[in-house]
Amino acid sequence: MKELLKIANLLYQATAKADEDDADEEASGGTAFALDASAFDIKTTRALASEITRLGATLHDALGEEERLRDARLSATRKNMDIEEIESQISEQIATVRENAANVERAMAELTEDESSLARQIERKRAELERSEKRLATLESGAFYTKVFHPPSGFNI
Question: Does residue 136 belong to any structural domain of this protein?
Fold first, then answer.
């Protein structure tokens, strides 16, 4: 329908322009069949011809689709629309969306809980590592370590 309106507007504008040109020509005393160079613009004519051709092709394509679309439109309008059925389907879809949202929120809560649990475990392991490093430093600096791991030169185990 939009394509038809575009073509109709284009033809109306062309007719209106032709009427204006005729009125101007009659007012100036010229004949209706006089063709002078100023009234005949090749570029405008070619542009209008290509636009008419393009709009005609678009209209042809749209009219080709009309039969298929008409069948779909008629089958949709022939159905008895039961408001209760539509409402129940919408309610089911809303319930499904709410359930999906609840599942996502639950998964996010579990993820947050897992993240905090892992953070606590990492902190515990860091503290344990620090304690082990301090103990190792203490043992390495102590007399026991020196005697066991670095015996005097004449001592054989």
Answer: no
Question: 0.90 exceeded by the pTM?
Answer: no
- 3 neighbors 54 (Cβ within 8 angstroms): no
Answer whether residue 151 is part of any domain.
Answer: no
One-letter amino acid identity for 148? V
Of 1, 9, 12, nearest to 58 by C-alpha is: 1
Domain carrying residue 70: 1-80
Please tell me the total count of domains within the chain.
Answer: 1
- 111-150 pLDDT, tens digit per residue, is 999 999 999 999 999 999 999 999 888 887 876 656 666 6
30 located within any domain: yes
Spatial CB neighbours of 56, under 8 Å, sequence gap ≥ 6: 7
